[in-house]
Amino acid sequence: MKYDVVVVGSINMDVIVDTPAYPAYGDTVFCNSVSMIPGGKGANQAVSVAKLGKKVCLVGAVGNDSSGNELINNLKSKGVDTSHIIQSDKDGTGTFVVIVDSTGENTMLGTKGANDSLSTADIEKVFNEIDAKILLIQMETSQESIIAAMKAAKKRNMYVILDPAPADGIFDEAFKYADLVTPNKQETKRITGIDVTDAASALEAAKKLNELGIPDVIVKMGENGSLVYQNGKATVVDAIKVKAVDTVGAGDCFAGAVANAYLDTKDLVEAVKFASVAAGIKVSRSGGQDSIPTLSEVQEYLVK
Length: 304
Prior knowledge:
The protein is of the alpha/beta class. It has one domain (2-302): Ribokinase (UDP-N-acetylmuramoyl-L-alanine:D-glutamate ligase, 3-Layer(aba) Sandwich), CATH 3.40.1190. It contains nine helices and 13 strands. It has a nine-stranded mixed β-sheet with strand order 5-4-1-8-9-10-11-12-13, with helices on both faces. A four-stranded mixed β-sheet has the order 3-2-6-7.
């Protein structure tokens, strides 16, 4: 089966806690609301690719439980091919608790569950059945599945985009197989030791990432935009100005949009301009995958 993008990654049920203030250690705080919504970096990125108009399949694992069934049905409704998602009888569906405060900032904790059960054999079976131009992958599944997918993609001449998130999942071996890496400030510091505070420090970090053997680098600087480093040249792309309501999934929306636009343009700077708009629209809305913009919404903003 042919796809534009194959996403290998996590599929979670997120428990979103909307609170006026982040609780101090040991405190009990009454919150505004608690809701359960589909999440997981892999699922969010696949939905982003689908909503922006490209053919995408998601490779991942959920539990053989009610949450797993609900998540698969949700992905189908968003236009994601789910035929390569495994339902595990041994492990439950991954679950994360996401605390969102009044500034829109989010703090997360959770269990990977079935996401960690993806094996090399699972990955090799799928890659023998599919073809795609881009592999989009993060670090929220088992290490062996991440390496197996990246190796299989390189063998098939796919462009490999590694979103090195979450920071807790980062391991060095993956960088050997990435064509593009897209860390945020926290992930950049974890990998390079450099605290990204401005474009100059982002460029220093990008060069260090390039020295690890990664040809193309996007360092995300939050409200200060993104620095694109390619072929020894750095370009800063500004973030769009919006009031941040909810940052949950913004990085995933950005990653899916970069993959999407790079397919059309083969130009990373143009892809980041497109992705910055998509992510900006996303953070201006509350909610998870439902608040990821469609292609027409991004295009409408770009022609303003």
